[in-house]
Specification:
Blueprint (H helix, E strand, L loop, with lengths): L1 E4 L2 E4 L5 H12 L27 E3 L5 H6 L11 H5 L1 H10 L6
The structure holds flavin mononucleotide (FMN).
Flavin mononucleotide (FMN) binds next to strand 2 and helix 1.
Length: about 100
């Protein structure tokens, strides 16, 4: 799952740890972006984003309904300290787009 807003991305990678680590390394070396921050890395029992290979949402391009549903988050930049200090808030934001992003 990949969110984009005002030049920042927020992304969840799920899978076997070796596969995730390898992809993370590849993404971290990608010159198209800088300032990578790992918000949280954890073992999970069940995937939250298993239905698609990659969902993408530009938060600058939301419908009125989506704006209403996600209003708590939309004024906060994706690289705000609130997400680094409370990764569950970041996860809730990403999960809240699960139903609408394909
Ligand atoms: C913000 C950002 C997120 C990315 N996320 C993914 C991803 O989830 N999966 C993926 O395969 N590549 C992702 N990429 C692209 C990789 O960095 C890389 O270009 C891609 O995996 C192709 O690598 P390859 O040419 O070695 O196959 C992302 C790139 C950026 C800039």
């Amino acid at each position: 799952m990949l969110l984009f807003k005002d030049g920042n991305f927020m992304q969840v990678l799920e899978g076997d740890s070796s596969v995730v680590d390898e992809l993370y390394l590849k993404i971290s070396r990608d010159p198209r972006h800088t300032g990578l921050i790992t918000l949280v890395r954890r073992h999970i029992l069940k995937r939250s984003f298993s239905d698609w290979k990659m969902g993408f949402k530009d938060l600058g391009d939301l419908t009125q309904d989506e704006k209403a549903a996600h209003s708590n988050f939309l004024d906060i930049p994706l690289n705000d300290v609130v997400y680094a200090s409370s990764p569950d808030v970041a996860f809730k934001l990403l999960e809240s787009f699960k139903k609408t992003v394909r």
